[in-house]
Amino acid sequence: MVVAPRTTRAAFDTIADPMSASPNAILRPPHDPATVLEDRFRAAIRAVAGIDADPQIRVSANAKFGDFQVNAAMSLAKERGANPRALAEEILALVELGGIAMKCEVAGPGFINVTLDAEYISAQLADLSRSANFGIPAATDRHAVVVDLCGVNVAKQMHVGHLRATIIGDSLARVFERLGRKVWRENHLGDWGLPIAMTLAKLIRERADFARLTLDDLNRAYRGAQRETDTSDLAAAHANHCGLHRIAELEIQYEPARAAMEDAKKTLVRLQSGDAEIVRLWERLIEVTMEQVYDAARTLNVKVGPDNNRGESFFRDRLGGVIETFRASGHAKSDRGAMVVPFTDRERPLLIQKSDGGFLYATTDLAAVRFRTFELDGSLVVYVVDARQRDHFKDVFDAARLVGWNRTADGTESTLVHLGFGAVLGPDKKPLKTRSGENFTLKDLLDEACERGTAEVTRRAADPASPTHGLAESELRAIGTAVGIAAVKYADLSGDLTKDYVFDLDRMIAFEGDTGPYLQYAHARIASILAKSGESTECIADTTLRLELPAERALALHLLRYAQMTLDVGRTLETNRVGAYLSQLATLFNGFYQACPVLKADDAATRLSRLRLCAMTRAVLADGLSLYGIIAPDRM
Description:
Blueprint: H1 33-49, E1 57-59, E2 68-70, H2 72-80, H3 84-94, E3 101-107, E4 111-116, H4 118-129, E5 144-149, H5 160-178, E6 182-187, H6 194-205, H7 215-228, H8 232-239, H9 244-253, H10 255-272, H11 276-300, H12 319-329, E7 333-335, E8 338-341, E9 350-353, H13 361-375, E10 378-386, H14 390-402, E11 415-421, E12 424-425, H15 442-461, H16 473-493, E13 501-502, H17 505-508, H18 516-533, H19 537-541, H20 550-560, H21 562-572, H22 576-595, H23 604-627
Parallel strand pairs: 5-6, 5-10, 10-11, 12-13
Antiparallel strand pairs: 1-2, 2-4, 3-4, 7-8, 8-9
Helix pairs in contact: 1-3, 2-3, 4-20, 6-7, 6-10, 8-9, 12-13, 13-14, 15-16, 18-23, 20-22, 20-23, 21-22, 22-23
């Protein structure tokens, strides 16, 4: 049985082919039989109907009816007022499938079932094994893909939301790198503006030792500064026209808060003017914050480092230009002293400058869009940010289009996408919190996952029959860490990204079922088979593939679909397709291993052929796991 991937964002099917420079050209993997079948049936349809139509090639749901199904006759017949079965017979009579299919027949109301020749499958798989990139065609689009990921705020602890923004973005970046695209990972730090100045001013007032600061210190200072400068009660009293006596009381009560805010504003002015001492202390805040970010990235096996940081401070000198561009183009107007961008299809405008001349997140985001499309040459810019920011990004993207900032330097139209993700929930279906009721920090979550993974690996290693029995504690911990992180990442990335999901380590860590550790275990199991065979890699790679049993055939056909799956992820941004493919691959391999003895095969040729299938499955499993940034251990 073939398991269809769990579809999420159907709207993303309109994204241009991630590999092709031409918006009308769709690149297809040459080794996938569906590619050849599409070409041959498209030609036959053209000969019969006189039009170029999609043959609608589908993988058969039941192998006993064939390997592929061609469904075009029914839709074409409806358009032409013809009999679908008769039309299917005409198409089948003209299609050229010599050396490709061993059987083709019309079934039901007009389906065409195709059973491929085993030798053809073997030849395609052998050719694929010699390709440099798992049969993925070379990209022709030389523009970049830009992925906005992580997005931490300076002086604040990373939380579970940063987990999703980081690993989803990294996975997409890995997919596009596998597709041969230039990729920019952009970590848009919240490192500028009044909240940072408030934190900095408070630390200075407290005479903090900046050399010894920890992120906990920064987090406490950040929260303390927010409380110290809070004058919301006073503002509410003025807004509600409270009595003069009450307002006077609040004015006195909040005098320290106003003084703290004034101090923060002066600190911000010094920072903006480049005061050397303030800049040095500000850079220390960033350094302390990023130490934890980089530590989390190493644990998660995520490619995020100093070169990926381009925060709000990077765009600070471009914000005036944003306002001027919108004003000069006529796409912004003054509204009670503020500058807004109105839209014709919604009531809410986009505020890009406050009445006091201050800038907003939208202003910075517009500057970032311009930088990412024009200067980074991004023809696809993906923002991996909390789904609650949907309206904000819709407004920002639409505003960017108004002034032509959705184009690269050579005028190519850029696709701007907000890939919103859901929340991580606890067993109570509420946002994940610790037993004490505090929000789970990312560090706490990763520490627990690694400890649980290590405990499970250590428990299994106690069995003398286990491949990990006798390994040193450090080796078991390394494997356990990889297992724990795989559990967390796979559970996140293999589901519908737009939905909330329940964080359940008991389920995630399991070595059975649809989990990351199960796929790691499948890889380690294949590695063990290959090692026990005693055959050299060269000997296995040179052997002739023999696909005589259904389980061999099913596994081979699935391996040939890996390149198309990867292309589909680039086209749809649905990372769950990777998980669905790998889960099916592991299931098919298990069926193959049960039905087809490998090390105890009947003869040497069959043994080597099955070892080659094992080797190819291992390679694809490892590569697929790498698209999630998951390590594939050789022993578990």
